[in-house]
């Protein structure tokens, strides 16, 4: 029996994260966890002319780790959607495929979502469609601290914090040409947005190359 990989839902997930969706035919997302701060659930990493660019989504009620993930609300005290989109456009406006895909993401950034989960979910659907990765994703029926043996528990394995990163023997980042590579060198495992705008239809090829055989 093929194993199912269990992941949490991320904001504009990393290349490593999306490679897992490609690697495993069966994918399950955890919808009954509590929010965990300092994770990719509400942040992502991009490349800019100044180096690594960290974007973070503001959450209503603070970063309450005891709050169920489906109840976490986005905060709109500041115009973060336009700020994030301006940052994305500044970073990738001159990339080879920005004009091909910008409208797909901009349509999401122009909507006002109440919940973090719904925002991340809709962005993930756009990403999967752009890279032509057809994937049926199941959601957990309850929270299980220790899932059954047929489930590979990858929750909290992919983290923006170096001290929490998991040594993933199945992932080896395949290099592609990045917009600011001359200034920054190659920055590995950025948001899948970086790969999409830089590699376009070949994104899926680079994901396949990033999986160790």
Overview of the molecule:
With 213 residues, the chain is of the alpha/beta class. It has one domain (4-209). It contains 7 helices and 6 strands. The model has no long low-confidence stretch (mean pLDDT 94).
Radius of gyration: 17 Å
Tell me the series of helices and strands, N- to C-terminal. EHEEEHHHEEHHH
For the largest beta-sheet, the strand count, sense and barrel status come to: 4 strands, parallel
Overall shape: it is: globular
Note the gap between the termini. 19 Å
Q: What's the total number of strands? A: 6
| Uncertain runs | none
β-strand amount:
5-15%
Number of helices: 7
Name the strands of the widest sheet in spatial order.
Answer: 5-2-1-6
What oligomeric state best describes the polypeptide chains here?
A: single chain
Number of domains: 1
Helix percentage: 25-40%
Based on helices, strands and strand pairing, what is the structural class?
Answer: alpha/beta
pLDDT averaged over residues:
94
Task: Provide key terms for this protein.
alpha/beta, two-stranded antiparallel ribbon, 32% helix, 4-stranded parallel beta sheet, 213 residues, 12% strand
């Amino acid at each position: 029996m093929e194993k199912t990989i269990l992941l949490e839902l991320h904001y504009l997930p990393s290349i490593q994260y999306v490679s897992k969706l490609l690697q495993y035919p069966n994918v399950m997302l955890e919808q009954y966890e509590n929010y965990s701060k300092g994770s990719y659930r509400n942040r992502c990493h991009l490349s800019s002319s100044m180096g690594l660019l960290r974007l973070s989504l503001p959450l209503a009620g603070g970063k309450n780790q005891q709050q169920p993930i489906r109840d976490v609300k986005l905060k709109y005290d500041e115009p973060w959607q336009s700020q994030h989109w301006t940052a994305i456009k500044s970073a990738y406006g001159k990339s080879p495929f920005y004009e091909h895909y910008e409208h797909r993401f901009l349509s999401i950034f122009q909507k006002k979502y109440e919940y973090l989960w719904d925002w991340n979910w809709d962005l993930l659907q756009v990403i999967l469609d752009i890279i032509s990765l057809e994937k049926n994703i199941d959601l957990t029926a309850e929270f299980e601290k220790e899932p059954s043996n047929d489930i590979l528990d990858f929750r909290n394995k992919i983290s923006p914090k170096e001290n929490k990163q998991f040594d993933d023997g199945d992932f080896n980042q395949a290099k592609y040409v990045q917009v600011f590579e001359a200034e920054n060198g190659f920055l590995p495992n950025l948001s899948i947005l970086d790969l999409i705008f830089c590699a376009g239809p070949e994104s899926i090829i680079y994901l396949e190359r990033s999986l160790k055989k």
